[in-house]
Amino acid sequence: MNVTPHLPVLVVIAPLMAAPLAVAFASARLAWWLAFIVSLAAAGMSFELLASARAGTVLSYAVGDWPPPWGIELRVDRLNALVLALVSTMSAVVLPFARASVGREVSSDRVYLFYACWMLCLCGLLGMTVTGDAFNVFVFLEISSLSTYTLVSLARRRQALLAAFRYLIMGTVGATFILIGIVLIYMMTGTLNMADMSERMQALTHLRPVQAGAVFILVGVALKMALFPMHMWLPGAYYHAPMAVTAFLAATATKVAVYLMLRFSFTIFGPTLILDDMQLGIPLALLGGAAALVGSLLALANSDVKRILAYSSLAQIGYMALGIATGMVAAVAGAILHLVNHAIMKSALFMALGAARNLSPGETTSMSMLRGAGRRMPWTMAGFTIAAASLVGIPFTAGFLSKWYLIVGTFERGWWPLAALAIMTSLMAAIYMGRLIEIIWMSDPGEQTPVREAGWLSLVPVLILAAASVYFGVSTDLTAGVAFDAARTVLAEVPK
């Protein structure tokens, strides 16, 4: 039996079914194994879908045998196949680290619930990515969001409850905006199927409800991706959540929101409506530039490493928004590529930080904790250093490649001040990350400390992602190749 046609639904159903099983097991060990195996299976299915998409095949799956546009459709093309592979792989990579660290940050009687919520979050993220139905974007968004709020709140520290509550309020506002926009578009087009909606939209772009719906959706998605100034939920959620949750969310949640921005802006509404008729590219570019600047300044002003990395994420999201706003193939491809690269490098940084903290007596993530860490745990800190180099954009790392395409595309658009701002904020990243590297490798730990590496459950994921940051900076066929093909497709250009 050929299961390939059923993979779009299986990749979503697997984590959905795993969540109640994890609760039924009521065992932290069994729940972790279930989550890990399901994540590996989802990654395998996602890469099979990516291979089909790279060959030019667009897979369509009709749920319940109701043909689209009447029934719910799951649809996989180059763009979302890449995101599916990213999300599922990051879940599989971060879960070993979670097993090593969650026991310290989550009460032992709640650990199995932690993995159940992890599976629900994964289901929601994959569902948002693969669905071809606009209303189901909202449904899967709520599944992902509600489980994420719970994951943040499960940390032992009481501040996590407040961070989760703030996240809930902001997330609810964003989801409401998205739902209002979907309702307005449905009223005008009479369909929820995204492919059908895109076709019917061509004759309706001049209508005010359509334009209002576009604004509602894009503002809601911008809030979910933590685009400045709608980013206030991100620093607290990242800082107070368990470190494994922070590593997972930084690699997936905002990246799926960036994917939704691309999907709605270009595939459904179309670049003509968004960039030409409504001129939304300019405010989006300005917000992206502001995010890059403000995030970099806040990172420079902080002395807590976890907050530095959180504010750095705000800056990197700004780069992606800037790339989308240009509407140029190189910049949009750079945004898609940076979506992948930033997920890899930032997850590695958070896990390496978490590994260092797990070997420290306190709960702090201040710079002083990393003093001389390169001598105490050289392999872990080597992974941190490589990921930091990729974040800055050092040549021969993945981060350099995506930033290069972003800046080239911005120059092609004629927005040279914003391109200069992107270069300047990258130099600012070199300052705040260079400060951390200096503390790690150049500072005296203060006492003679034997080498004590993180356990293999923590170390191996960090080294895998650090190696990926170098590999994808040198070998560009998979990530950059798919990114450019996807960019040409969503911008309705014929591949050269």
Any low-confidence stretches, pLDDT <50, length ≥5? none
The largest sheet, given as strand count, sense and whether it forms a barrel, is: 2 strands, antiparallel
The end-to-end span amounts to 37 Å
Order of strands, main sheet, comes to 1-2
How many DSSP helices? 20
Average per-residue pLDDT, rounded, comes to: 88
Rg over CA atoms, rounded to whole Å, is 21 Å
**What share of the residues does DSSP label as strand, in percent?**
under 5%
Which percent range fits the helix content? Answer: over 70%
What letter string, H or E per element, gives the SSE order?
A: HHEEHHHHHHHHHHHHHHHHHH
**Morphology call:** globular
Structural class: mainly alpha
Number of strands: 2
Describe this structure in words.
The model has no long low-confidence stretch (mean pLDDT 88). This protein is 76% helix and 2% strand. It has 20 helices and 2 strands. The chain has helices spanning 7-25, 28-54, 78-105, 111-130, 134-153, 159-189, 194-201, 208-224, 233-240, 243-268, 271-277, 281-301, 305-326, 329-358, 373-376, 378-392, 398-413, 416-442, 456-474, 479-490, and strands at 59-62, 73-76. The two termini are 37 Å apart. It has 496 residues and is an all-alpha fold. 60% of the residues are buried. α14 packs across α20 (479-490). The longest helix is centred in the middle third of the chain and has 31 residues, at 159-189. A two-stranded antiparallel ribbon has the order 1-2.
